[in-house]
């Protein structure tokens, strides 16, 4: 049984630690979970929550309270316990009964759990109090104990009586998975994220909207790894790794809401990079917090901040500049720098590193892969000991960083040369078994076929000129949710190795692919590619397709995103597309062009976006246009942009581009899908990888300047370029080698 220790490590409760360890051992082989003081079912005062809540298909809901003081008597009203330390507390039996009623009331709202006709729950609820400092003989002499509604367990009875109590309350038959899932979601409060309640159920899907609704008609319940991260507060730094769509933002939002509810005195920072996620993050926090805490979050104690900020929207940088009397640099001042955000933090630290004072009790960093070291170092300096900094890193979101950066590279070094956070700091667990480093293998957003295709195209696995970059360790592929079928033994791959990977269905929780296949349709239709002769033709076709999706297939316009890779012309392209959609009676928005960057989604409106602004967002239908730029991009940045665009989709992905470049990319896609769900390729040579990794790791601004010079020479000084190459036989030899 899974043991979720929650905030146990913060409270130094010896009795709870020992009873929790006993329960974990006693129920090791059983299914379900043991939570320390969770779920709270909306009870605001944590002292009114039982010490342990067990949710199990075999034992139902079990509430176990541990009294960590010696009981000497019960007052005549039966409402107060008198303790050996001279204090009195409210009866834990009454507290347990009140909590029992809260659990029952919440479960009665779930049709899968409660039979309204017979007014009966399908799940048992039982309760017990463990008196940690009282023996059986002592308890039997205390008047009023015999009247308790809860089972009474003395410290000298724990070993036998807890197990006996559980067995006595075993379910007549094991609860079905969907019933237990509904119970857990209702009690944890994650039903707030339950897509199945957003719209009426569909029995026989016909339209695309039908299929999407059926695929989402599953109760949202945190999986085991997600729960261990979200519901527990670490005693120090913690890293979360996973693909886009594995639930990292939901997990961080839940962790923020839970910590804010349980420790309202904590000052919490939720830091992120994509401006359009402001509303989404605050909504996710509020969706959980408000029903559970019965009030709005205190946004002064729980700060949701973009890393930069500006005149109209506060951010961490603008805030610390104001606090320390430093004039903040504006985007226009650093425009063109490859790491503008990192540069401004670096300059700020050069002036104020020694002045920064820790003010936050917990810092949560989403989209960590978008941040460079100065931002992490600032977070470190702003966080109080024991440095509860939780950073969520999107694997594969940037081609320049396929390899996970070490904490030393992120958080910087102290004056004595020691790392602020070392790799060793992420090894092992915190008290309560809270892990320090998590990997999320399950993708909830993308259909499996979309994700496999996106990985294959991003790495160039079918690119005629060769693979662009490669993960060279078995464990790295497994962290992405793949099984390595070949080589069968090697942990590190070498040039020439034949690599065979498969993404199993169990790691892709999006059920749309199976629904389509089960209805007799081709699941490969989830990824579609079309070529056009010119941009007007492409945009017109996209507008017509959107009209069909909205009118015939019933897809809501705000569940459609159009991402353009042709960033140089996308403002004009989007303006044209917007005008066509307006003529069709379909609204659309252009975040960062016309609407505010933070206004990414608006009810009833299609979103037209660049890949950068689309990051962190998702929709049921995604169009990726302008793909002809991918194959001719010698910097490989467009492969990354393509991956970002494709992985925004929960359902269908429509790719398009102009003939030539788009045709070459379509050939790569067709080749990848011919072996789906398997990816098979030969591990590239060290020289190929070395050369391409140099390009990938170059400064974006430097690359842009050099590309411009070369492009100009190819147009106006072709003869000079040819002569220069002729006079450099070594370079010509290398060029010849790359073609062979």
Automatic annotation (TrEMBL):
<feature type="domain" description="UvrD-like helicase C-terminal">
    <location>
        <begin position="607"/>
        <end position="655"/>
    </location>
</feature>
<dbReference type="Pfam" id="PF13538">
    <property type="entry name" value="UvrD_C_2"/>
</dbReference>
<dbReference type="GO" id="GO:0000725">
    <property type="term" value="P:recombinational repair"/>
</dbReference>
<dbReference type="GO" id="GO:0005524">
    <property type="term" value="F:ATP binding"/>
</dbReference>
<dbReference type="InterPro" id="IPR027417">
    <property type="entry name" value="P-loop_NTPase"/>
</dbReference>
<dbReference type="GO" id="GO:0003677">
    <property type="term" value="F:DNA binding"/>
</dbReference>
<dbReference type="GO" id="GO:0043138">
    <property type="term" value="F:3'-5' DNA helicase activity"/>
</dbReference>
<dbReference type="InterPro" id="IPR000212">
    <property type="entry name" value="DNA_helicase_UvrD/REP"/>
</dbReference>
<protein>
    <recommendedName>
        <fullName>DNA 3'-5' helicase II</fullName>
    </recommendedName>
</protein>
<dbReference type="InterPro" id="IPR027785">
    <property type="entry name" value="UvrD-like_helicase_C"/>
</dbReference>
């Amino acid at each position: 049984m899974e043991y979720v220790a929650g905030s146990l490590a913060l409270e130094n409760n010896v009795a709870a630690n020992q009873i929790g360890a006993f329960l974990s051992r006693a129920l090791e082989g059983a299914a379900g979970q043991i939570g320390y003081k969770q779920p709270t079912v909306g009870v605001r005062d944590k002292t009114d929550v039982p010490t342990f809540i067990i949710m199990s298909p075999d034992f139902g809901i079990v509430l176990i309270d541990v009294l960590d003081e010696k009981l000497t008597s019960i007052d005549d009203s039966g409402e107060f316990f008198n303790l050996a330390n001279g204090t009195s507390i409210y009866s834990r039996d009454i507290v347990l009964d009140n909590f029992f009623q809260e659990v029952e009331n919440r479960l009665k709202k779930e049709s899968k759990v409660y039979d309204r006709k017979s007014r009966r729950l399908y799940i048992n609820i039982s309760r017990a109090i463990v008196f940690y400092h009282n023996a059986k003989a002592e308890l039997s002499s205390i008047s009023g104990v015999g009247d308790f509604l809860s089972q009474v367990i003395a410290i000298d009875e724990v070993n036998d009586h807890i197990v006996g109590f559980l067995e006595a309350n075993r379910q007549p038959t094991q609860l079905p998975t969907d019933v237990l899932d509904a119970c857990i979601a209702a009690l944890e409060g994650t039903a707030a994220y339950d897509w199945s309640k957003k719209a009426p159920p569909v029995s026989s899907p016909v339209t695309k909207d039908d299929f999407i609704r059926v695929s989402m008609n599953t109760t949202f319940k945190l999986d085991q790894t997600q729960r261990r991260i979200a519901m527990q507060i670490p005693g120090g730094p913690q890293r979360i790794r996973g693909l886009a769509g594995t639930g990292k933002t939901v997990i961080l939002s839940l962790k923020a809401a839970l910590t804010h509810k349980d420790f309202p005195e904590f000052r919490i920072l939720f830091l992120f990079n994509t401006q359009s996620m402001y509303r989404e993050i605050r909504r996710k926090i509020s969706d959980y917090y408000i029903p559970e805490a019965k009030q709005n979050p205190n946004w002064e104690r729980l700060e949701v901040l973009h890393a930069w900020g500006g005149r109209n929207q506060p951010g961490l940088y603008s805030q610390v500049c104001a606090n320390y009397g430093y004039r903040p640099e504006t985007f226009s001042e650093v425009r063109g720098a490859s790491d503008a955000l990192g540069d401004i933090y670096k300059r700020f630290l050069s002036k104020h590193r020694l002045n920064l004072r820790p003010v936050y009790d917990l810092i949560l960093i989403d989209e960590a892969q978008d941040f460079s070291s100065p931002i992490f170092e600032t977070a470190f300096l702003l966080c109080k000991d024991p440095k509860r900094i939780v950073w969520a890193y999107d694997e594969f979101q940037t081609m320049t960083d396929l390899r996970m950066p070490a904490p030393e590279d992120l958080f910087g070094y102290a004056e004595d040369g020691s790392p602020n956070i070392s790799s060793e700091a992420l090894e092992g667990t915190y008290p309560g078994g809270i892990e320090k480093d998590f990997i999320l293998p399950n993708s909830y957003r993308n259909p499996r076929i979309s994700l496999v295709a996106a990985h294959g195209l991003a790495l160039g696995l079918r690119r005629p000129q060769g693979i662009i970059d490669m993960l060279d360790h078995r464990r790295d592929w497994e962290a992405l949710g793949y099984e390595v079928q070949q080589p069968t033994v090697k942990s590190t791959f070498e040039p020439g190795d034949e690599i065979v990977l498969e993404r199993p269905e169990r790691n892709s929780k999006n059920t749309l692919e199976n629904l389509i296949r089960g209805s007799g349709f081709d699941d490969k239709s989830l990824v579609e590619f079309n070529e056009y002769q010119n941009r007007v033709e492409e945009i017109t076709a996209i507008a017509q397709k959107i009209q069909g999706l909205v009118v015939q297939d019933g897809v809501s316009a705000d569940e459609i995103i159009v991402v353009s890779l042709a960033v140089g012309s996308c403002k004009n392209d989007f303006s044209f597309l917007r005008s066509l959609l307006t003529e069709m009676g379909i609204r659309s928005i252009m975040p960062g062009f016309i609407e505010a960057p933070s206004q990414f989604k608006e009810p009833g409106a299609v979103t037209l976006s660049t890949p950068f602004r689309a990051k962190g967002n998702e929709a049921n239908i995604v169009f990726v246009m302008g793909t002809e730029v991918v194959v001719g991009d010698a910097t490989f940045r467009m492969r990354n942009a393509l991956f970002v665009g494709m992985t925004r989709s929960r359902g269908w992905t429509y790719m398009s581009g102009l003939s030539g470049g788009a045709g070459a990319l379509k050939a790569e896609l067709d080749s990848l899908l011919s072996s789906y769900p398997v990816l098979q390729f030969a591990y590239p040579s060290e020289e190929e990888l070395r050369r391409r990794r140099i390009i990938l790791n170059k400064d974006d601004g430097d690359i842009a300047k050099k590309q411009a010079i070369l492009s100009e020479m190819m147009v106006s000084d072709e003869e000079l370029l040819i002569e220069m190459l002729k006079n450099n036989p070594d370079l010509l030899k290398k060029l010849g080698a790359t073609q062979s």
